[in-house]
Amino acid sequence: MVIHSGVRSIPGPKNLFGLKNLRNISTDGFLKFLSENWQAYGDLFQVQIGPKKLVMVVHPDYVRHITMTNASNYLKLESYDNVRKYIVGDGVITSEGDLWKRQRRLMAPFYTPRGVQEFSDIMLRDTLLMTERWQSMAAQHAEVEMFDEMALVTASIILKAIFSTDSADEILEIKEYVETMIAYASETSNNPFKLPDWMPTGSNKAFWHAHDKVHAYINDVLDKRLAMDESQYPNDLLSKLITAEDKETGERMSRDLLRDEALTNFFAGYETSARTMSHIWYALARNPDVKAKLHEELDRELGDAAPTLDDLKRLPYTLRVVKEALRLYPPAPMYAKDVVEDDVMDGYHIEKGSVMMLLPYFTHRHPDFWEDPLRFEPDRHAPEAEKERHAQAYHPFGSGQRICLGNQFSLLETHIMLAILAKRFDPKFVRGYEADFSFGGLLVIENGLPMILETR
Ligand code: HEM
Question: Which residue puts its alpha carbon closest to atom 21 of ligand 1?
């Protein structure tokens, strides 16, 4: 980073109250708006959107400053109020201070590369169930909406991992209620004209109905679990959360925290993985050379048997495909931090109260850090290349102490899903398909991803 002596102000499009910005975003979409401004202003630019001052962060040095060097000045405060209020309460994804530290410490052991292996059986079994479903559909070259297909599997995996839920109906019901809650929280933050949440409007009623159902479901599972003898507990995340003890105080989590953490895991962990898988199918259909290399590895290493956890070690290219999809199409294309006190970063004045939007989507396409950045090239993630790279040039899971808790879970899950499904199936685009990516809380293909199922 070049250090400048004078303090500079951050460049960006200037317009009254950000009204022109709002208009441009509503006509062109946020993705195009950000791309154009990145080209025009560079790796740090400021955008007024209505009442909010957002600082867009692309350069990996700045990502390092915000998430590591001066992380205590960049916290999850007001920007997370809606997620806190409407979805996860005091869960680890939004908490701060001592509560966050304690909860993160308590949960970290479940999410280490070894810890998540305990869930590999669920991941393997659920994906194999999907192959049975797809087998008959592929025989008829059925058209599927790929994101929905992937979400069915990842929702089922995470609900089984947390609660040992095995009823497919229950899984579907909870998934839909949680989707309603997520959509509501995001719509509420994007809509300054939203009526208060206690007014009996259609969307308020749908939200509270979904909220009450999800809470009732979790409360019911919790009641049943807490009534059991601990020696009878199933080996799932909920049991681990209940029995986790703070080493210093010997305390366990309160019931409310158990609920919030269970909900946090579901909220954070199923749509992101489903979007990653959809983006992989999209990338494979566009890159026949990569697909051929993937098939070659799967055929060589797996034969006809279903893979086991051990087999994954022999599938490095498969994992690189996952990582490359997370680079070009990161499911969480941006994440926010609130500025606590004025700061100076690379000579720029960072104003207290503004919101830093970290943008992995653009960092991952930065030509100074990625050769031919738009090319889908899994071998960029070979171990030697990873070592040489700027550590923050790749941050699909965030960076620093608040890096995604579930990153190993989701890498294992998508590695398994891709190995099993790509071994047998080769989904194709429908004729004339062009994806229309859009950029909100998550990276979404606005027009969906309809694909024709084919067996290989
Ligand atoms: C491809 C899938 C996923 C992606 C791209 C992803 C991405 C992210 C990102 C960008 C953050 C925010 C980092 C920050 O604010 O600094 C985050 C946080 C988090 N994620 Fe994930 N995530 C994924 C899957 C999962 C899964 C499967 C789980 C749980 C099983 C999970 C649980 C969490 C939690 C608990 C946090 C908050 C950590 C903290 O603040 O201490 N995520 N994730």
Answer: 404
